[in-house]
Design goal:
Layout lengths: L1 H18 L16 H11 L9 E10 L15 H16 L3 E4 L4 H10 L11 E19 L2 E18 L5 E18 L2 E2 L7 H22 L5 E8 L2 E5 L11 E6 L3 E3 L6 E3 L3 E12 L7 E9 L9 E5 L3
Parallel strand pairs: 1-2, 1-3
Antiparallel strand pairs: 3-4, 4-5, 5-6, 7-8, 7-14, 8-13, 9-12, 9-14, 10-11, 12-13
């Protein structure tokens, strides 16, 4: 009888342990290995957007840690490892989104020094907007519950970041956004069995990464509000060379409108230069693409209606036709 009772107790503990498991691991799918060329082709296809993408040129001007977290064990010269971590995460996500042209600013000194070693001056390109931001909230908490023969412990990290976009020419802040992220881990014990969790420092990184992803979505949404347009590089009779290619979603056979830019007039009310609405002067059809990177890609188009002055394309641009 005693042995029977012990067996029942052991079986009960096993059932309780299985019922209170706090972490599940999804099944791992086994896939057939693909060749390196097939993988590269898939990556290149993923980098080509389905729709036209106007890639705003941006740079992260400053990203700082404005919280108390990490103030006592900083080790780098700038005394802001958390801010630099957030800045690097944001830059990685912006580049990975394929919707921005991202330029270096925070380590620009290293680039100019390296250019000087190569006997040349760094050819820096101005950006449309500077991203300025900070980690404004960061904290951790530990909660738990205790019951008969059981206990649970939950560690949670939460982060909040604030960013703003400033026009690099005027300093005007035209957009702000906040991002919030949270990460947690849970452990539990039943009758002395189960998992024990010590301090998990990776929660900090995951919470900041989640907050950066959240604010990145807001930046992309703002970007998509802007009308796609590109400039005319050169005209040669009925042939037009335009900036932008596959990485901006341009395909052979696409048709676009040729626009003459409206006059620029300074507003006495705001002090800004306001461009009056442009005028459609013709249309083009893309016949081929050239270039292999965002920095050198373009398209060759033929004029199918209207005309563009040869030799001087200032004040003209190409955009999507209105439907």
């Amino acid at each position: 009888m005693v042995l029977f009772n012990k067996s029942l107790i052991s079986a009960g503990i096993v059932l309780l342990l299985s019922a209170c498991a706090t972490t599940t691991t999804p099944p791992v799918a086994v896939e057939a290995s693909a060749s390196r060329s097939a993988q590269q082709a898939a990556q290149q296809a993923a980098a080509i957007p389905d729709a036209k993408v106007f890639k705003r040129k941006v740079a992260i001007g400053r990203f700082s840690n404005e919280t108390r977290y990490g103030r006592t064990f900083q080790t780098d010269a700038s005394l802001d490892p958390l801010g630099k971590q957030a800045s690097d995460m944001l830059a990685t996500k912006l580049v990975g989104s394929n919707k921005f042209l991202v330029f270096e600013r925070q380590d620009i000194g290293k680039l100019t020094d390296e250019a000087a070693r190569n006997g040349a001056a760094a050819q820096l390109i101005g950006v449309d907007a500077l991203i300025l931001g900070s980690v404004t909230e960061f904290g951790r908490s530990t909660t738990g519950k205790s019951g008969f023969l059981s206990s649970t412990k939950v560690q949670t990290a939460r982060a909040k970041v604030e960013v703003r976009l400033a026009d690099a020419r005027t300093g005007h802040i035209f957009f702000t956004a906040s991002g919030v992220g949270q990460a947690n881990t849970e452990s539990g014990e039943i009758a002395g069995y189960g998992s024990k969790a010590d301090y998990d420092s990776t929660l900090n990184d995951r919470a900041i990464a989640a907050a950066i992803s959240d604010v990145q979505n807001a930046l992309i949404s703002k970007l998509e509000e802007r009308q796609w347009r590109t400039d005319i590089l050169k005209t040669d009779g009925k042939q037009v060379f335009m900036s932008g290619g596959a990485k901006q979603g341009i395909k052979t056979g696409d048709t676009f409108a040729i626009m003459r830019e409206g006059d620029k007039i300074k507003s006495a009310q705001t002090g800004f230069q306001i461009t009056l609405p442009g005028t459609a002067v013709g249309s083009v059809r893309v016949v081929s693409l050239f270039g292999d990177a965002e920095s050198n890609e373009g398209a060759v188009a033929e004029i199918i209606s209207g005309s563009v002055p040869s030799g001087n394309n200032a004040g003209y641009f190409i955009t999507e036709q209105k439907k």
